[in-house]
Design goal:
alpha/beta; Rossmann fold; six-stranded mixed β-sheet; four-stranded antiparallel β-sheet; 32% helix
Length: 224
């Protein structure tokens, strides 16, 4: 049996505006095994991104347990959480979040600057990651010299360069045309099948979700 990599138990999340409580997630229970590929779907405002942020340790639950890679991350202090995140989490965003003044190589190298790797070791990791996403020949290009699909592939290379335990992708095809979106989802599928990466994708696109093994629906803060 594959190990349970993610376990959420009775997770709720509310935001507060003055004295007004705004519930976003209600009593979420979720288990994901290592090597799984899950798509999280739901309308805007259903809490998908909030759930992803809880899994990444970017946000903390109002109540409940968030256990990822054996760690109850809701109980970690900020320093321990940052260290944990750099080891276990690879993030992919809708709008790439590349730094325009850095080359593809430099953008992908960024997470490794926080590690103890030597310059030579960092180069090997970066070249491998860019090769996996099919951009080994574009490492000296700046984001403005790349297409949207290529920018997202650089962002995925940055997410995998530190060999994270879990890849979290928030609407990774949301800003792409149909062809580029298909390429990105095929790449994520390959990372899952070939490299055994556990992946959670937030998407509103049924075509993108088809690549996942499991599809769960979030609606009004409740997981179905």
């Amino acid at each position: 049996m594959p190990e349970t990599l993610v376990k959420l138990s009775n997770v709720t999340k509310s935001y507060y505006r003055d004295s007004l409580e705004i519930p976003v997630l209600t009593d979420i229970d979720l288990e994901i095994s290592a090597g799984e590929f899950l798509a999280l779907m739901g309308p805007s405002g259903s809490g998908k991104t909030t759930l992803l942020n809880l899994l990444a340790g970017i946000d903390r639950p109002t109540s409940g347990e968030v256990i990822v890679a054996g760690e109850n991350i809701a109980k970690l202090n900020e320093g321990a959480l940052a260290k944990w995140r750099s080891r276990h989490i690879g993030l992919v965003f809708q709008f790439y979040n590349l730094i325009p003044v850095l080359t593809a190589y430099e953008n992908v190298e960024l997470p490794l600057l926080l590690t103890d790797l030597s310059k030579k070791e960092r180069r090997k990791h970066v070249e491998t990651a860019l090769s996996i996403v099919g951009l080994g020949d574009r490492m000296d290009h700046y984001p403005r010299q790349l297409s949207g699909g290529q920018e997202q592939r650089v962002a995925i290379a940055r997410a995998i360069v530190s060999d994270p335990t879990l890849i979290l992708a928030d609407e990774p095809t949301g800003d792409l045309d149909k062809h580029s979106a298909e390429e990105i989802m095929t790449l994520l599928s390959r990372l899952n099948s070939e490299f055994k990466k556990t992946i959670i994708v937030v998407t509103h696109d049924p075509r993108a979700a088809e690549k996942a093994h499991i599809i769960r629906q979030l609606d009004k803060g409740e997981l179905n």
